[in-house]
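Supplementary Text 2. Reproducibility record for the structural model of the 268-residue chain.

All settings were left at their defaults, and a single model was retained for analysis rather than an ensemble. We include the record here because the model underlies the residue-level annotations in Supplementary Table 4.
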Amino acid sequence: MLLWARCIISRGECVIELITSRKNPLIVHVRKLVMSAKYRQEQGAFVCDGPKLLQEALQYGGILQTVICTPEIKLPELPDGVRAVSVPTDVMGTLSPSKTPQGVLCVCAIPRRPLPRVLDGRRYLVLDGVQDPGNVGTILRTADAFGADGVFLLPDCASLWNPRTVRATMGAVFRVPTWDAAPEEVSELLRRSGVPLYGAALRPGAADVREVSLSRFAAAIGSEGNGLSEAVLSLCDGVFRIPMRARCESLNAAIAAAVVLWESARDM
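Retained model, structure tokens:
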């Protein structure tokens, strides 16, 4: 059993705490942030795993609280007030959500982002029941790549702050505005802003996405298994389909979002 150990070490100008106990309150706290969505919401914090996400947080305004690393990692300069901690490799292995820990993770505050009064952007995505964290993260990464102005996550979507989701965003979690909201809230906001809502659905009468005006729009994307819910479809101003072979029933949600945003990017 590891004994409690906590001391201060110095690496140049960076002062780092040394913690060796798996029972240390910080270690327990971070482990719970990794494992529990409820705890993340209660604490208003989430975990980013790996040096790339740390760098993205530093570069794009992530609200860093704590950075934890193994002894061989050289940390970049951190903002004042950020707690820096060094842990043994075996302790990092109990914290990291990755099978192969990269030697550094950080805890960031979940940003408080209320729904705006109006939207002034041109491209938005509305995710309906997309439950796979990898898909949600990839959609956010794609939204960043093609210049989307924001992503709405309706109830029953995977949590944006799940470590798997965060990792799949490749840093876009710090760059793309996101909002958790009910379908009716999003619909009212879009109407108030003059932004039409189109649903991606393979159903009779759906327009070819290549023939839909995507100069200013919001696209609702459902899960691969269930598609868009009837509740969300009822709020849409129109429905479009992505043309594909008749023998194919659907596209992965992240791929569907990429196709729609690629089409819209022609106007960029």
